[in-house]
Amino acid sequence: MTGVDRVEFAYLRRLVAEPEMLFGLVRSAFGYILLDRQGCEHFLNAFPDASFGPADRLSGIKRGMHDARARAESHLRRHCLDRCLPLRLGRMLRKHVPSGTCYLNTGHSNLTDRVLSAVKSVQDARVAVFVHDTIPLDYPQYQRPGNDDQFRMFLQRAGRSADLLICNSDQTEADVLRHLAPLSPQTAVAHLGVDMPDAGSPPEGPWTGQPFFVCLGTIEPRKNHELLLDIWPEIEDAHLLICGSRGWNNDAVFARLDQKPSRVHELNGLTDGQIVGLMQQSVAALFPSLAEGYGLPPAEAAALGVPVICNDLPIYREILGNIPVYASADDLYLWTAKIKVLKQEQTLAKIRLRKGAAVPTWEAHFKTVLRLV
């Protein structure tokens, strides 16, 4: 899952465990699906293994729908409280949802005028929107064409209509208020929690039994894999494992990876458990990102006790303090030197007892959020 996916999953998991009434609103290919608590539990239990069952006949009407989506939407329809065409969304919500309900949007998607109008038609309803970052506006060069305009509309809509904007950091809150000025919406900061899955058996390869470093994240321009490819010929007797799927607009890096550079390995499709297993065996985790909204992977590595080298970004300083080794992405010499030092220390120590660093928890996050919504 992506970072945003992990946040949405954490919210679903926590809210299902809360005693209050719970509903889930899903936009499907054929309108909207409304889940009650039981329906949300069914989805939560089915999601990790994608055990959604077969696609129904309705999904077969929509040409080109991915099989996984067809099965997921069919599963949701089988366990729904109600469903409707888009024009009847307000009527469906008023029929089932009690007054005083708070609508939580946690994923930067589906916050449309239609949804907001329908939610607001429920008596005394409130709206809380989670804003993960403002990267599309601050770094449009790293976005798909048009993403900045789409995000700008989302943020303006949230700023005008939401009763609360939840931000994952002080940095994000400052960025949100800067972009929304002169609007001054109510905001709250709640750092994201870090909870690690159990370690699985890591994949084996030429790196097995040898010193190796891990870089975790989608292979896209702002993750700056190019820096690591530039310096790796100088890192002798160590492997680089790039764990993540290929993104977009990064043809130069893809071409270099296709050439199979020495001691550089591209791994995708790994499970969370496999990644944890690799992290635990690695010398260090490397994050030369040029921009980040939060940076869950470095926090996860720190929680495992894995040394972290990362670009000197304000968000990393806020979340991780002095835990990582910081090196400016402009300084290739410093990155090379820091990696060599860690490799040498690992080689000399042979076996190092690692103790995880104290990082933010989901319990603290929800203690802040749930008292406000």
TrEMBL record:
InterPro entries: Glyco_trans_1 (IPR001296)
Organism: Thalassococcus lentus
Record domain Glycosyl transferase family: where: 208-322
Name of this protein: Glycosyltransferase family 1 protein
Classification of source organism: Bacteria, Pseudomonadati, Pseudomonadota, Alphaproteobacteria, Rhodobacterales
PANTHER family named among the record's database cross-references: BLL6006 PROTEIN, GLYCOSYLTRANSFERASE WBBK-RELATED
